[in-house]
Amino acid sequence: MELKISIVTCSDTRDLAQDEAGAALEELIEAQGWTVASHVVVRDDVSEIGDAIVEAADECHANVVLTCGGTGLSMRDVTPEATRAVCERDVPGIAEAIRAYSMTKTRRAMLSRAVCMQRGHTLVINFPGSTKAARESWEAVSDQLEHAAQMTAGGGHAK
């Protein structure tokens, strides 16, 4: 399946040129032969993050939106709230899998508030903002993205 993946980096301190985690995700997406549908950096603001997710899903027609950053315990970390505000259905297993995998790397993974949800036919997954953690999150779930996107788009299980 040809996947179109959008990246929404959530940061008050970075712009696109400084977005190392987002750039790493672009490389990982392209290495799979998939397409980067869009890549933006927005401030840590519920409305801006929500608007970027909506645009990636509804205008860029991404199968998957990866948010990057804003999943921690700081009061400025509002990516999960923004994701919940613009998505309909919770997909807890993906966020749980990322945390479980990341816990094998660092115990601080338990501090993540990241969520995964569906917006229509688009899967939205919150990744942490550091380059290392974003790569690890990709390692945890990338082998399931094609099937998840196919099911989110209304595909059925093979019989």
TrEMBL record:
Pfam families: MoCF_biosynth. InterPro entries: MoaB/Mog-like_dom_sf (IPR036425), MoaB/Mog_dom (IPR001453), MPT_Adenylyltrnsfr/MoaC-Rel (IPR051920). Keywords: Molybdenum cofactor biosynthesis. Residues 6-148 form the MoaB/Mog domain. GO terms for biological process: Mo-molybdopterin cofactor biosynthetic process. Pathway: Cofactor biosynthesis; molybdopterin biosynthesis. Signal peptide: none annotated. It comes from the Bacteria. PANTHER family: MOLYBDENUM COFACTOR BIOSYNTHESIS, MOLYBDOPTERIN MOLYBDOTRANSFERASE. This is MogA/MoaB family molybdenum cofactor biosynthesis protein. It comes from Collinsella aerofaciens. The lineage of its organism: Bacteria, Bacillati, Actinomycetota, Coriobacteriia, Coriobacteriales.
